[in-house]
Amino acid sequence: MKKPKVSRRSVLKAAAGVAGAGLLGGVGRAQQSQYHESPFLLGPARGNRVVIVGGGWGGVTTARTLKKINPKIDVVLIEAKEIFMSCPLSNLYLAGLKDLHFLTFDYANLVKEGVHFVNERALEVDRDRKRVYTTGGTVAYDYLVLSPGIEYVYDEVPGFEPFRAHMPVGFRPFEHVALRRNIEQFKGGDFILSVPKGPYRCPPGPYERAAMIAWYFKEHKIPGKVILLAPSSKPPKAKGFLAAYDDLYADYIEYYPNTETLGVDYEKKIVQTSLGEFDFDYANIIPPMRAGEIVRKAGVGDRWVDVELPWHQTKVDPDVYVLGDADSAGGPKSGKLAFEEGRYRVAVHIAARIAGQEAELRTPDVRNICYSFVDDEEAIWIAARYNLDEANKRRKALESKLDVQRSVKNGERAYDWAAEHWGYMFGG
Q1: Is 2 exposed, middle or buried (0-12, 13-18, 19+ CB in 10 A)?
Q2: Which sign does the torsion angle of CA 226, 164, 304, 373 carry?
Q3: Which of 46, 103, 173, 316 shows the smallest number of beta carbons within 10 Å?
Q4: Which of 18-27, 174-183, 238-247, 283-292 has the lowest mean pLDDT?
């Protein structure tokens, strides 16, 4: 049916040598885990041990900051992937402007600083016994930080699950490799890009992706169009994105706001939406999201996790913290916000508790900034400061600024911003 018309494989696998289940469930004494007999991966901690699950923006920043505050703290980082890949700036990779090396880092410098890197997948948490069970064995903790990022809720897009291998999403690390290959193999036609209902990781991300894929089509003279389907009435940074779509990609992007994706028939190459059916030659459907599975395994949350701001302790267990995209405290789900709250909130609070002190806010608010490229050199941005809404215990936006006039200077600032943050996380 015709669419409606509208205008470093080598990394140190270094770790191995060197409170009740609650109402939400979790693994407790009454429900003993199948993993409870698995061997311990590490010897006894030298002092208090902080175990961090998730080696992304929030987890890495928390680990490194704890070691900066107090090198004697026993810090363990559990991460299933051998290397880190940044999702911020990854749309440059999808457009062929950067290679994967630009976005990836190993965990070697954290290991050099004394962080135990456990290259395993976390399977369950026993909050009674204060243990994390992994694919390689058991790790005991005194304090636990869960920074698992997101997972996709495929079944909220009927028809997606059986064919998800053919339609990589690209909102989690390394899925971009398959998606870029599919973009490079695209010969022409309708390329559907479907935005989910919020909240989801990186709200401007799909709109930046639309611009960068359109740039790729235009640059390589591919006779295709990006059909951008979005449930909201307008995108973040609306003036900047819409101006780029009109000025740069009038022949390459068709944007359909207020259009919810209801399902997909991969074999018939049809996406069902609230506006009708759209034919596609390729579809990059971004499904709804929720917190990574380990928060449900730990019994501290369901779709998202309620946390006590400003320090991010979970409401069911003060020794378990949840950081980054997984919380439900308001504000955008972004790498920058996870970085800020890992550095200035979670690490500070845990270090103070270990020292027997009251934690003090080093900065009264946390900042978020998001750069979005709209072509090979030019970018736009939005920034905001967040403090605590005492009445609702959620993030409160104090002010926001934006520059929706695309410019090369903004693109250069985006690279500088990334280098600064990656340098803190992974630098020597």
Answers
A1: exposed
A2: negative
A3: 46
A4: 18-27
Q: What tens digit of pLDDT does each residue of 279-291 get? A: 999 999 999 999 9
User: Which residues contact residue 198 at a Cβ distance below 8 angstroms, ignoring those fewer than 6 apart?
Assistant: 232
Cβ atoms of 41 and 123 within 8 Å: the answer is: no
Domains of the chain by start residue, with CATH: 49-149+292-364 (3.50.50.60), 155-289 (3.50.50.60)
Is residue 249 within 8 A of residue 378, CB to CB? The reply is: no
The answer, yes or no, to whether residue 34 has pLDDT greater than 80, is no
249 is written with which tokens? Answer: 């990609």
Alpha carbon distance, N-terminus to C-terminus of the chain: 56
H helices, E strands: number in the chain? 10, 24
CB 40 within 8 A of CB 34: no
**CB-based contacts of 406, cutoff 8 Å, min separation 6:** 240, 243, 244, 374, 375, 378, 379, 380
Strand-pair partners of 425 = none
The mean pLDDT value for 162-166 works out to 96
Give the Cα separation of 228 and 206 in Å (integer). Answer: 9
DSSP 8-state secondary structure symbol assigned to residue 354: H
Half-sphere exposure of 83 (CA within 13 A, CB side): 14
The whole-angstrom separation of Cα 306 and Cα 126 is 19
Mode of pairing for the β-strands spanning 270-273 and 49-53: unpaired
| Residue 391, Cβ density class (10 Å: 0-12 exposed, 13-18 middle, ≥19 buried) | exposed
pLDDT at position 45: 87
- 386: its two tokens: 């967040």
Strands of 137-269, DSSP E: 137-140, 143-146, 150-152, 189-194, 224-229, 253-256, 261-265
What pLDDT score does 32 carry? Answer: 54
Which run of H or E residues covers position 294?
helix 294-297
Beta bridge partners of 345: none
- Confirm if 346 and 309 have CB atoms less than 8 A apart: no
Q: Is 314 helix (H, G, I), strand (E, B) or coil?
A: strand
Give the whole-angstrom CA distance, residue 388 versus residue 368.
Answer: 14
Largest Cα span, the chain: 67
Kind and range of the H or E element at 271? strand 270-273
As given in the structure block, the two tokens for residue 155 are 């079944």
Query: Edge-to-edge strands of the sheet including 270-273?
Result: 261-265, 270-273, 276-279
Write the DSSP symbol of residue 342. Answer: I
